Amino acid sequence: MDLAFKSLVNYASRKSGVNLTQYRENYLRRRIEFRMKILGVTSFDAYLKMLQNDGKEIDKLLNTITINVTEFMRDKTPFEFFMNHVLPDIARRKEKVKGNLLRFWSAACSFGEEPYTIAICVFEALGSKWSVSIYATDIDDECLRVAKDGFYRPTQLKNLGKDLLEKYFEKEEDGYRVKSFLRRCVKFKKHDLTTQEPVSRYLDAVFCRNVMIYFSEQQKIKVVNDFYEALVDGGYLVIGKSETLPAGFKDKFECINLREKVYRKFSNLANSCEEE
Ligand SMILES: C[S@@+](CC[C@H](N)C(=O)[O-])C[C@H]1O[C@@H](n2cnc3c(N)ncnc32)[C@H](O)[C@@H]1O
C-alpha cells in the first residue's frame, strides 16, 4: 500500500470506527477512487484533506464502500431451498424437543429485504404456530432506518407475487409497508461484523450473503468463526452465491447444497436434510 493511500485508509478507519485497513486493498482502492471521481479529486492526499475538513464526507465514503444493493428473495433458489429443505429440518428437530422458538440472524441486512424475506419464508413453509425471532444487523445507520420503517416501492417488490404482497404488506399511497406482525419478528441492530462479537447464540440459521466478498481472508475467518459460535449444533449458514467459506472450515461445517451455498454446523444429530 503506498503511503498516501495508507494514510487515507488509516484516517478513515479511525474517523468511522470501521477497520477499513482489513478490507481487500483492490476493492477499497476502487471504491475510494469512485468517490473521488464524483468529487473531482485527483489525489489521495487531497481527498484526505477533504475528509479532515468536511465532517460529513466520512459517511458518504462509508456508504460508497459498503454498497447496499439487496432484494426480496434475492437469487430466489436459495430461499426456495430454505423453505423446502432447511426449515422443515429445523422444525422437525424443534418438535422432537417440544420447542417452538425459531431464531435467525440476517448479518449485513442492508435495507431489510433479507430479514423480511426470511420471515415470509418461515410463515409460508411452517405456518404461524411458531414464535419467530430474527436479528438483522448492518453497520450502515441509514440502511437500518429504512429497514425498521419497512416501507418499499413497487419496483423493490418485483420478486414477490400478488399473493405474498397481500399477505405480508399493507398498501399505502406510493408503495407497501410490511405488516406489523411480520415487523415484530425482526430486531434491527447496528453491528460491525469485522470487529464485534456475534449478536446472539443458539441460532437456528445465519444468513450472511453478499458482504464477505468485500472482506479480506482474515476478516472472513473471524466472521465465519463467529457464525460457528453463534449457531446451535446442526444450525445452518447461508452465504452469497458467488462467495466461498475460507479454507480450514471443513471440520466445522458440512456443505448441504453447494449451488445454493447452504452449510450446516457439524453435530452428532442424524442427517435429515437432502444433500446435493
Ligand atoms: C450488498 S449488501 C448485502 C445485503 C443482503 N445480505 C443481500 O444479500 O441482499 C452488503 C451490506 O453489507 C453491509 N456491510 C459492509 N461492511 C459491513 C460490516 N463490516 N459489518 C456489517 N455490515 C457490513 C453494508 O452496509 C451493506 O448493507
From TrEMBL:
- SUPFAM superfamilies hit by this protein: Chemotaxis receptor methyltransferase CheR, N-terminal domain, S-adenosyl-L-methionine-dependent methyltransferases
Show which residues constitute the signal peptide: none
Q: What is its EC number?
A: 2.1.1.80
Instruction: Report the superkingdom from the record.
Output: Archaea
Catalyses: L-glutamyl-[protein] + S-adenosyl-L-methionine = [protein]-L-glutamate 5-O-methyl ester + S-adenosyl-L-homocysteine
Q: Does the keyword Transport apply?
A: no
Q: What terms describe the molecular function in GO for this protein?
A: protein-glutamate O-methyltransferase activity
Q: In its UniProt entry, what is this protein called?
A: protein-glutamate O-methyltransferase
Q: Which organism is it from?
A: Methermicoccus shengliensis
